[in-house]
């Protein structure tokens, strides 16, 4: 075994301490933790946190992190004092919307294996006698939630690490990062220097300052968050235990509560956002003076607190802080390695709640080369460049502060700054009354009001409540028309790169699962795997020339992964072409008829079969045409440069009139995708799944030679899997579930929903779900829990639409 690398951890907050523990436990014992202030003292966010651990999260990975934190801190103590108290968690609703949302949260918890219960006001008051049951409509009780003792947990983990050889050094402020040949070699502090093979920045809200030392944007904003303690409660006189009642969340008023012996601590998110540039935070001397408690900001919170817990009226706010911690544009942590400086890693914007889970995942990533948990939502590389602009980071992070306890629909967009990225078709789409939502900075049409008069609108089943938000029956009509005639879909936001050079083919062959050594003009659907066979992404690779490939990817993370693996000799290059180009998906049975009138290129099936690509002119516009679709129709993706996008749109639009062409949006797209059973990476499939479980084994060619992940797949097949991504249909057409709901078999939780949509052509309500194989046989009755209700579902044969591929493979 090679000697363990020298690791320097920057920051001895809970994240740095947890990481030192997890690394040393895995045998990386040469760990030095440098802390600018004193150890386990006031200074960082950890020292200000009251340590509430509510595990339930919309993101499975975050729930998993929290579960591990509970499990780990539950067994830790510092000199006999516990690091965690399993007092339970109670979330209460004072509005009908919140009551419904608590049922949704109960579903998320269940889907992630966290036991919980929905309870009535009486039970809420029984669990937490201080609250006024007349004020609440109901509650959500999670018995395993509780209170961490953040400084204790930090120190206990540090001591274990020290026991295995780690060093913790106080009063060492890192001011420089040493590097050589693209790798870190050490850090310098104000008074010394430390050699390192790996530097881990766990600097919390100081992250951006450390990032600047290595030209790395760390998109987080330190924000003040108010935390106050009352004077002693007369009704708690004589109490000696630190806390016994559940930690309490009152999201309707942006509040949470815990006990401090005979006092109550109150946290508030209801006040105005109070961001502070990371540079302006002092170091290690506690809170900057401009962030002392501002009572005026706490007034409304106090009123709401007394309203819920009337006995607080007998007390007053005795002390308060405007404590600082990190907020990110999407509320998720920042984990990963610097894209341009090997060995510089980041684990920042992490709550106490997720600290142990994050540390374990990071240690697995570093030591084993791969975390067990899907980290794509936390990946430092997930951002588009435009999302890293300082104003963007500020506005979105402020919004994620404001929305921290809001009831959020999965499609609900952040509002500012918009519009930011627009395809060249934007003006035309706006003229057609597009309803836009944002993704990756892009404005994307979901449906077009111009299609409101299509007779098909009347054939679309109505929807209720949540399923009706950000939805219109027009999208359904667009899907029906796309399958009957032809539609234009804006695919510009689908990320793409060009991979070029003499080493391009061997590079892509090594990185992906399918056979790419085909003639120029071929397109191949293929997978990126990690070394353990987990699916990192699914791609289309179009061979445009002997040494030129266009690769359709899923996110910036794919590009980062590919770049990291480029051959060192410069024989292959990657260049992202998304921003300078645009794409129309022209799909539907009449797609060929429309295209052929506009081009001298032969688009017949004989001349251009399924999964083939050609350069052609569409009217005046040079395009790369690829015969494929993500929606299961005859048709082409047509790429051109951004300057000609307008012309391409107008040319196709005009020629299409004779064929009844329409513009169609994402709603139609998503519905058609699920009818055809195409997987969406990141939602249906992640690194936690192998290709066979995901139903993507057809894209793996074990006999093609080496590729990343091949060895791990040896001996695996569709026959050996124990769980499967499974197609379900739901009888009730009005209830289209949102995703993330638990699936029950014989009354017991068995799996969870990934994507769902109504299939307008097949006339069925579709949900894909991860299930153990024994529950994945067609015809198996199951139930999906949706906002607290069990809805009947049944396993279906997939794909629901065009199982024989007749529609897209043939000349149609
Ligand atoms: P920190 O604890 O800030 O540690 C970072 C360390 O890095 C600091 O000690 C700092 O001195 C050091 N450092 C920075 N720059 C350098 C440098 N150049 N050289 C050397 N050292 C450096 N989370 C929950 O889960 N539950 C809660 O109930 C909760 N309540 C909160 C209430 C308040 C009032 C606040 C402020 C936060 C709360 N949080 C809560 C959030 C939580 O405190 C933080 O997310 C968490 O402590 C972050 O840990 P960390 O180790 O990343 O950061
Ligand atoms: N277009 C392009 N690239 C992409 C996507 C896209 N890359 C990312 C993502 N989408 C990949 N997803 C798919 C999923 C399915 C198909 C295409 C892209 C598809 N699959 C055929 C099938 O399953 O029948 C593949 C069959 C085969 O390989 O023979 O069409 O939308 N450019």
UniProtKB/TrEMBL annotation:
This is FAD dependent oxidoreductase. Transmembrane segments: none annotated. Residues 723-802 form the Aminomethyltransferase C-terminal domain. Residues 6-365 form the FAD dependent oxidoreductase domain. It comes from the Bacteria. It comes from Amycolatopsis japonica. Residues 425-704 form the GCVT N-terminal domain. Residues 368-423 form the FAD dependent oxidoreductase central domain. Belongs to the GcvT family.
């Amino acid at each position: 075994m090679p000697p363990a690398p020298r690791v320097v951890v920057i920051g001895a907050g809970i994240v740095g301490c947890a990481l030192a523990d997890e690394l040393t436990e895995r045998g990386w014992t040469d760990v030095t933790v440098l802390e600018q202030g004193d150890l386990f003292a006031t200074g960082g966010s950890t020292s200000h946190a009251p340590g509430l651990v509510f595990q339930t999260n919309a993101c499975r990975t975050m729930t998993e992190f929290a579960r591990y934190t509970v499990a780990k801190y539950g067994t830790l103590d510092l000199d006999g004092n516990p690091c965690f108290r399993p007092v339970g968690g109670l979330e209460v609703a004072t509005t009908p919307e919140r009551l419904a949302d608590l049922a949704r949260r109960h579903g998320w918890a269940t889907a992630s294996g966290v036991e919980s219960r929905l309870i009535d006001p009486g039970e809420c008051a029984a669990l937490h006698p201080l609250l006024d049951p007349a004020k609440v409509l109901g509650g959500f009780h999670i018995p395993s939630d509780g209170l961490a003792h953040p400084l204790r947990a930090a120190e206990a983990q540090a001591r274990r690490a020290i026991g295995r050889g780690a060093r913790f050094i106080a009063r060492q402020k890192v001011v420089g990062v040493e590097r050589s040949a693209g790798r870190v070699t050490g850090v310098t502090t104000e008074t010394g220097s430390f050699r390192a093979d790996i530097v881990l920045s766990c600097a919390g809200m100081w992250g951006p300052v450390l990032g600047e030392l290595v030209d790395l944007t760390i998109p987080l904003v330190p924000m003040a968050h108010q935390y106050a303690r009352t004077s002693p409660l007369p009704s708690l006189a004589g109490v000696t235990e630190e806390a016994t009642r559940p930690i309490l969340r009152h999201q309707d008023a942006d509040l949470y509560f815990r006990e401090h012996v005979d006092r109550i601590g109150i946290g508030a998110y209801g006040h105005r956002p109070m961001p502070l540039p990371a540079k302006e935070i002092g170091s290690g001397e506690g809170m900057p003076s401009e962030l002392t408690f501002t009572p005026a900001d706490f007034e409304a919170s106090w009123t709401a607190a007394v309203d819920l817990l009337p006995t607080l009226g007998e007390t007053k706010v005795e002390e308060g802080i405007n404590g600082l911690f990190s907020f990110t544009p999407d509320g998720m942590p920042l984990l990963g390695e610097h894209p341009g400086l090997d060995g510089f890693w980041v684990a920042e914007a992490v709550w106490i709640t997720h600290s142990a889970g994050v540390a374990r995942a990071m240690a697995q990533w570093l030591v084993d080369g791969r975390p067990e948990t899907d980290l794509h939502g936390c990946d430092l590389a997930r951002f588009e460049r435009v999302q890293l602009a300082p104003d963007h980071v500020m506005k979105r992070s402020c919004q994620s502060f404001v929305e921290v306890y809001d009831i959020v629909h999965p499609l609900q967009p952040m509002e500012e700054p918009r519009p930011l990225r627009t395809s060249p078709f934007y003006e035309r789409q706006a003229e057609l009354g597009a309803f836009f939502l944002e993704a990756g900075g892009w404005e994307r049409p979901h449906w077009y009001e111009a299609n409101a008069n299509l007779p098909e609108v009347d054939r679309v089943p109505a929807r209720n409540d949540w399923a009706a938000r950000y939805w219109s029956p027009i999208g359904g009509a667009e899907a029906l028309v796309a399958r009957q005639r032809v539609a234009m879909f804006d695919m510009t936001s689908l990320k793409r790169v060009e991979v070029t050079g003499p080493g391009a083919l061997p590079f892509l062959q090594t990185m992906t699962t399918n056979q790419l050594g085909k003639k120029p003009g071929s397109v191949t659907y293929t997978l990126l795997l990690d070394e353990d066979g987990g699916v990192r992404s699914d791609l289309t690779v179009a061979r445009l020339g002997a040494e030129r490939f266009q690769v359709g990817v899923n996110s910036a993370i794919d590009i980062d992964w590919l770049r990291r693996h480029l051959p060192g000799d410069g024989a292959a290059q990657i260049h992202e072409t998304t921003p300078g180009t645009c794409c129309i998906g022209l799909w539907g049975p009449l797609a060929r008829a429309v295209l052929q009138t506009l081009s001298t290129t032969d688009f017949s099936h004989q001349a251009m079969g399924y999964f083939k690509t050609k350069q052609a002119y569409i009217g005046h516009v040079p395009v790369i045409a690829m015969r494929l679709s993500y929606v299961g129709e005859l048709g082409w993706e047509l790429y051109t440069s951004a300057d000609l996008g307008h012309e391409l749109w107008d040319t196709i639009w005009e020629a299409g009139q004779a064929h009844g062409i329409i513009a169609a949006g994402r709603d139609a797209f998503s519905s058609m995708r699920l009818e055809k059973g195409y997987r969406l990476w990141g939602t249906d499939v992640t690194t936690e799944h192998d290709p066979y479980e995901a139903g993507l084994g057809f894209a793996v060619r074990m006999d093609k030679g080496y590729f990343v992940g091949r060895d791990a797949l040896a001996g695996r097949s569709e026959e050996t899997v124990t769980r499967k991504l499974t197609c379900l249909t739901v009888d009730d057409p009005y209830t289209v579930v949102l995703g993330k709901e638990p699936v029950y078999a014989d009354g017991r939780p068995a799996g969870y929903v990934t994507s769902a949509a109504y299939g307008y052509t097949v006339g069925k309500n579709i949900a894909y779900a991860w299930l153990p194989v024994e529950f994945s046989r067609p015809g198996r009755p199951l139930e999906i829990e949706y906002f607290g209700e069990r809805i009947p579902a049944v396993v279906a044969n997939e794909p629901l639409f065009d199982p024989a591929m007749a529609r897209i493979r043939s000349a149609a």
